[in-house]
Design a protein that fits this description.
The chain is of the alpha/beta class. The protein has a single domain (40-280), classed as Pectate Lyase C-like. The protein is 13% helix and 23% strand. The protein contains four helices and eleven strands; from the N terminus they run αβαβββββββββαβα. Strands 1-2-3-4-5-6-7-8-9-11-10 form an eleven-stranded mixed β-sheet, with helices on one face. 41% of the residues are buried.
């Protein structure tokens, strides 16, 4: 398994500082601008106001519209029974909400969300929580491929196994897999953190730009420019706290997890290609 080449120029450029420390974040809103923290038209909901409905005979559009109607009535806790593995359920929710699906979801479940806390008692199909911005999504069983594609924030948790290309183009947030993940997980990862308690498939972290992947089991092999890095006390403390939140454990203990980061050997953005040199010169 490749090791981080500490004499590489990218090290001198400060590209390998502690991942958990983060980067300087631009302040978009001041505390007195509280009204800007929510979306225009966001519903004022009460988590203590609870309701449920049976979705067995409803199509996806009707289910999603009904969820919004209930939010408009102030319900902050909504239980959807018998979702029937229908596609695109719970998408586009830009609101505080406790949303429970008693059953399984199909493709593209709970994508494009910003704020809700979602729990799914069954399985989910491909592309669950794609472009998730904030909140939490917890799946009790297994998930399909492209789990958490382009996620930007929040916690996305699958307590079972997931398919290939988990966290493709991940831009932030945390993806947690209680079991194993398939090939090309972390492909073109840009930021954020991924925790895999079990095994990881081939080409882990292929072409990742930044971010951190932790693996508790075996790694089939690493992708291009993905390298192993040293675990720190901060890594261990954060992993313990995060996994305890969702009642999960690393296969061989947090201390023995493998940490994968971008080697950044391919960070040659300042170098012109031969054809580009001709154009410039």
């Amino acid at each position: 398994m490749a090791k981080l080449e500490r004499e590489h120029a990218s090290y001198d450029m400060g590209m390998h500082t502690e991942q958990l420390a983060g980067r300087t974040q631009q302040v978009f809103f001041l505390p007195e601008e509280e009204e800007n923290f929510t979306y225009p038209g966001a519903f004022d909901v009460d988590f203590n106001k609870r309701t449920e409905f049976d979705a067995a005979k409803m199509d996806s559009k009707s289910i999603n519209l009904h969820i919004r109607e209930l939010m408009g009535q102030g319900y902050g806790t909504i239980v959807v029974k018998n979702p029937g593995a229908k596609h695109s359920l719970g998408v586009g929710i830009l609101n505080r909400l406790q949303l429970y699906f008693e059953g399984s979801l199909g493709y593209f479940g709970v994508g494009l969300i910003d704020g809700p806390n979602v729990r799914i008692s069954g399985r989910v199909g491909w592309s669950c929580a794609e472009n998730m911005m904030a909140g939490t999504v917890v799946i009790e069983k297994n998930a399909g491929s492209t789990f958490g594609a382009a996620i930007r924030g929040g916690d996305l948790v699958c307590k079972g196994d997931v398919g290939s290309r988990t966290g493709i183009d991940q831009k932030g947030g945390t993806i947690i897999v209680g079991g194993r993940t398939g090939a090309f997980s972390g492909f073109m990862m840009q930021r954020g953190r991924m925790i895999v308690c079990g095994d990881a498939g081939k080409n882990l972290g292929d072409s990742m730009y930044d971010g951190t992947i932790y693996v508790g089991g075996k790694i089939a092999d690493l992708g291009v420019d993905a390298v192993e890095a040293d675990m720190t006390d901060l890594d261990v403390a954060w992993l313990k706290r995060k996994l305890e939140m969702y009642d999960l454990e690393a296969r061989n203990g947090v201390e023995n997890m493998t940490k994968i980061v971008a080697g950044k050997q391919l960070w040659n953005y300042d170098n012109l290609e031969p054809t580009e040199k001709k154009l410039v010169l």
